[in-house]
Amino acid sequence: MKPSGAAQPPNPPLPAAARLAPSPPPPLGVAPNATHGTLNPDLLSHVAADEENSSEPLNSAIPAPEAGKQRTCEETEKLQRAQAELGQIDKCLSADVRLIRDEIETASLEFMESQKRYDRAEKEFVSAKLRLHQTSERKEQLTEHLITVIQQSELRKGQKLEEIMRVLDIRTT
């Protein structure tokens, strides 16, 4: 270090790019605007305290290759467990879907059989109803015919009786 009272040689002129560029920050422990070699004691104690306080977090924040491998293994295991659980859920879903589809198939077959039976029963019902109507009409026709036959028979009997009475000359008084 040069004594502060000694004359210093003039600095050579800087190129234009160097004059525009910002000056580099002072080294740690040196106060800004201080001359080189003069250390600020407050700043030094502050830097030392920061280094002591942050030494552990810095060491733990910088991942070691082993910690990275362990974390990767843990994440891989978690992914495998998640995939296994999803696979189990898919198996359960597939089994449930298969069972429901089988039940739907069975219900569909039962429905078709019931529909056929209903159609046959409906056809039989329509046929029986038609037969009932036909036999009912036939019965009514025969009943009317019987009434007509009885009435005609009574008329003939009456006419025959009148004729016999005339022949016998019997008068009704």
Characterization of this structure:
- By secondary structure, the chain is mainly α.
- It has a domain at 48-168.
- It is built from three helices and no strands.
- It has helices at 16-20, 41-61, 65-168.
- The protein starts with 15 loop residues before the first helix and ends in a 5-residue tail after the last helix.
- The mean pLDDT is 79.
- InterPro entries: GORAB.
- This is RAB6-interacting golgin.
- It comes from Tigriopus californicus (Marine copepod).
- It holds the Pfam family Transcrip_act.
Rounded average pLDDT: 79
* DSSP, total strands: 0
Helix content: over 70%
So how many helices? 3
What structural category arises from helix and sheet content? mainly alpha
First and last CA, distance: 184 Å
Q: Label the overall shape.
A: rod-shaped
Taken as a percent bin, the fraction of beta residues is under 5%
Q: What is the C-alpha radius of gyration, as a whole number of Å?
A: 62 Å
Poorly predicted segments:
none
**Largest beta-sheet characterization:** none
| Succession of helices and strands | HHH
